[in-house]
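Example 5.3 — Regulator of chromosome condensation (RCC1) repeat-containing protein
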Amino acid sequence: MTKVLRATGLPALAASLVGSLVVFGASPASADPAAAEVPAAVGEVLTWGKDEVSLRVPVPEEAKSGVDAISAGFKHNLALKDGQVIVWGIPELSSRLLMVPVAAWDGVDAIAAGTYHNLALKDGQVIAWGEYSGLTTVPEEAKSGVVAIAANQDYSVALKDTGEVIAWGWNDLGALDVPEEAKSGVDAIAAGLGHVLALKDGKVIAWGWNKHGQTDVPAEALSGVDAIATAGQHNLALKDGKVIAWGWNGYYQTDVPAIAQSGVTAIATGQYHNIVLKDGKVIVWNYNGQGQMDVPAEVKAGGITQIASTYYHSLVLR
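Solution (predicted structure tokens):
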């Protein structure tokens, strides 16, 4: 849901793991000895990936228990606990991004982190804060009746209780050009790098930037889909426990491994990697240039209840 560049592409990164797959807790024989026991789900946030986000800035104490939801930004993270928004990130980030506004101190129902801004949903109203007024100025139609939110670098998306998708921000890549099909009956939304996904009656709808085929929805994702995910230039859909992937495949991130073709219960994407949840355990593929696949022992143990990811790091909730 975040992106790094507002230009027409992203530079190739040097350190990649091509054709890689990491599965944790797949069987007793393969389990990490240091993580033999599956912990109880206590609402603790765990994170890994790019050093400056997940290692240099530890998870704050208040996000180590009782958290209800998580969202990953570019160099910061959000957590939701008892209706309160918790934000943390690298110290160099603007206070406008890291300081939660008074309106989001309590009663919040959902959160979404972008690169330079954040969203919270409270009583059907979108609250936005961050570095640029074009991203934090919420349109009137998003101030009531909203049921879901998503954010990327330069735009936001909201889903109304009528099933209508609305979008605002900057439209350099066409993400704000909501098609008629997505103006009613939509059930879920996801924000990618210049493109948007919507789920309507089990069908994936996509619009916006299509340099790598990210809006060319495959036939398999035109019916029966249960969930959608995107953050960069590729997408995931979940159908009957099977992961479907399409879009940019520069690091083989759309080559779904056999283990992710059944029994999957949740999906999330980064720019060059994916993370999915199966039987409370994470499966990660495919790029490791920023440590995306260096999953910590406490995550390997299992007992994971939620997953979130962005460009170079991931969050989980257990």
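Remark. The first helix runs from residue 51 to 54.
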